[in-house]
Amino acid sequence: MLDAPHPQTSGRSLFLGDIENLGWDPQLKTLTPERVQTTCFGVRRALWPFQPQEVVASSHYFAEMVWFHWDRPARRLVGSGPDGADLKLLEVLANESVSERYKTVVIGSGDGIFAEPAAKLAAQGVQVIALCGTGHLSKRLKLAVHDVIKLPFGAPPV
C-alpha cells in the first residue's frame, strides 16, 4: 500500500470516486460536509501527480452535500439504493471506452464490485489504482489493481 503515488503518471487519468465509501464517518455513522471537504482535499493531495478528470458519485440523500462541498470541477453522478453510487460508476466503466481514453484509472472505493472491471482494464493495458478511505478494501479488488493508495485524512487548509 502506497502513502503517496509513485507509479508512472503520463497520459490522461480518470478518478472514479464513491464519496460515501471514501469519506464515511464511522463514529457518526454518516457523511458530513466536513468529511466531504476533507475527502476532497485528500483526493487532491493523493492524486496531484495524475491530475485526473474526476467523476464523483453518491446517493441522492448526500448528493447536494457532495456537490456543494467538493471544491473543484467534477462530473457528479447520483445513484440510490443498494450499491447505487457504485452502479453509476460501473456504468462509466462499461459504456465510455475508458481503456481507449485513459492511461490510468483510479477507483476511489474499496468495494469488491469493482474487482472484475479493474482486472479487465488492467488486461487492456490501463494502470489501475485503488484509492481507499474510511471504507474497507476488498481482497478481490486489491488483487485486481496495480497499486493501492490510502487516502490521507489531513485537515484541509483554511
Observed structural traits:
globular; 6-stranded parallel sheet; 7 helices; alpha/beta; 6 strands
Per DSSP, what share of the residues sits in E-state strands of 2 or more residues?
15-25%
Distance between the termini: 29 Å
Spatial ordering of strands, largest sheet: 3-2-1-4-5-6
Low-pLDDT stretches: none
Q: Which class do the helix and strand fractions yield?
A: alpha/beta
Relative helix content: 25-40%
Identify the overall geometry. Answer: globular
- Number of discrete helical segments: 7
Cα-based radius of gyration, to the nearest Å: 14 Å
The ordered string of helix (H) and strand (E) elements is EHHEHEHHEHEHE
Mean pLDDT over the full residue set: 91
The tally of strands reads 6
Main sheet properties: 6 strands, parallel
Description:
Helix content is 39%, strand content 20%. It is α/β, with parallel strands linked by helices and 158 residues long. Strand 4, helix 6 (115-123) and strand 5 form a beta-alpha-beta unit. The longest helix has 15 residues, at 33-47. It is globular and about 40 Å long.
What's a quick, concise take on this entry?
The protein has helices at 19-23, 33-47, 60-69, 84-95, 98-101, 115-123, 139-144; strands at residues 13-18, 53-58, 75-78, 104-108, 127-132, 147-150.
